[in-house]
Amino acid sequence: MEAHVDEQEIRLIINRHYSNCDGLIAVLEEIQTSYGYLPESALRMVADITGRSMVDIYGVATFYRSFSLQPRGRHHICVCMGTACHVRGGPMVAEALERQLGIKAGETTVDGEFTLETVNCLGACALGPIVVADGVYHSKVDAAAAKKLVENLEAEQEQPESEPAAAVSSL
Ligand code: FES
Fold this sequence. Notes:
The chain is built from seven helices and four strands. It is α+β, with helices and mostly antiparallel strands. The protein has two domains: about 5-65, no CATH class; about 75-160, Glutaredoxin, CATH 3.40.30.10. A four-stranded mixed sheet has the order 2-1-3-4, with helices on one face. Helix 1 packs across helix 3 (about 40-50). It is elongated. FE2/S2 (inorganic) cluster (FES) binds near residues 80, 85, 121, 123 and 125. FE2/S2 (inorganic) cluster binds near residues 80 and 122.
C-alpha cells in the first residue's frame, strides 16, 4: 500500500531545494528520506508543482540506484556483485542472505524488516566482497559473516535501547 503523502510537506521540500528547473535530485532525496521511497503520488505532486513532466521525473528517479520506487524494509542490505566482489564470492554471500531472509534480491520481507538488493561496484573492490547494511560498509564478507550481520540487525530491533551491533569489518 502506498504511503500517505502530505502535499504541504512536498511543497516545503520543493521550496527548499528547487529553483529555475534545478534541484530535482535534492527534492527526490528528501522525499525518499521522509517516506523511505518515492511514492508515485509524491512524484505526481512534484510534477504538478514544478511543471516538470512525469517522464523527466521518472527518468531521474530510475537512473540513480539510490532511489527506490517501492517501499523498502526497515533494514536495507546491499551486496556488491561487481566483477571483483563476484570473483571473491559475492554471489555466495547474496545466496546466503536470500536463504536466511527468505526473499530474492530486490525484494522486501513480508514483515517489512529487510530489503535485500545487489549493486555493481561500490568502489572498494580490493576489500570485497562488500556488503552495505543500513549504510555501514562491511568488507571481506563471507556467507557466515553475512548470517551474523542479519542476526545482529535482528538483535538490535529486539533491544532498541542497546548499542548498535558491531560491524563485521568496516571500511
Ligand atoms: S566490485 Fe565490489 S566494490 Fe568494486
